[in-house]
Design goal:
single chain, 228 residues, alpha/beta, 6-stranded mixed β-sheet, two-stranded antiparallel ribbon, 10 strands, 30% helix, globular
């Protein structure tokens, strides 16, 4: 069995009620649920939440909410792995044989059913633990700078101050959309970012973290341009 797990706790701080806040006319979580359904990859799409309103909205858009997430993994310190392992444990208690699982974030309005299917194709046949969404940095990270206590500037890698951009290695980061994985890897708590993982590369124009109100406003503007 293949399942999707969408973590969506109710206590978001920086953007209150972020998971169900309206984004271009729909609750934010609806985009993740609809993409999961459209992908055709899943036998079940589950939302893990501690919040009744989130549960009701998730069900309206076609997800299942078969349990209430325990309070001890619904606070600011709970990790994605905590939520996934709890869901796996619940499935095992119901004698559900799950072999592949995809964690989909509830705040991923740019997620694509095609990318979800690409991740499944990799993890289902490859000798890997995980396949996850990633994108390239827009600027060479070797030229990154930091500010000291006096706000003076220093390079993090000063040895590259004169290296040509085309000679610097490309770098990528987690796109924060989904993590496909083998249930055995999740149960063992193996890390997402290792030689046992592969990346599904997403264009930068379809990637935006939504952690602050500024992020939210930028994501809305980007979505309007893409859909316009």
């Amino acid at each position: 069995m293949r399942i999707a797990v969408i973590p969506a706790r109710g206590g978001s701080k920086r953007i209150p009620r972020k998971n169900i806040k309206l984004f271009h006319g729909k609750p934010m979580i609806a985009y993740s649920i609809e993409a999961a359904i459209a992908s055709g990859c899943f036998d079940k799409i589950m939302v893990s939440t501690d919040d009744i309103e989130i549960a009701e909205i998730a069900q309206q858009y076609g997800a299942e909410v078969p349990f209430v997430r325990p309070a001890n993994i619904a606070d600011d310190h709970a990790t994605t792995m905590d939520v996934i392992q709890h869901t796996i444990g619940w499935c095992e208690s119901k004698n559900m044989a799950v072999d592949l699982l995809c964690c989909i974030y509830a705040t991923a309005p740019f997620i694509s059913p095609v990318d979800l299917a690409s991740g499944l194709a990799l993890v289902a046949v490859g000798d890997i633990d995980y396949a996850f969404s990633a994108t390239s940095f827009a600027f060479p990270i070797q030229r990154a700078i930091s500010l000291n206590e006096n706000d003076s500037v220093q390079m993090l890698q000063p040895e590259h101050v004169n290296t040509r951009s085309q000679d610097l290695q490309d770098a990528y980061h987690d796109a924060g959309q989904f993590y496909w994985g083998k249930v055995s890897a999740f149960k063992a708590g193996r890390p997402f970012f290792s030689l046992s993982s592969k990346a599904i590369l997403i264009p930068r124009k379809r990637v935006q973290d939504v952690d602050t109100l500024e992020d939210w406003e930028f994501a809305e503007a980007l979505y309007a341009v893409m859909k316009g």
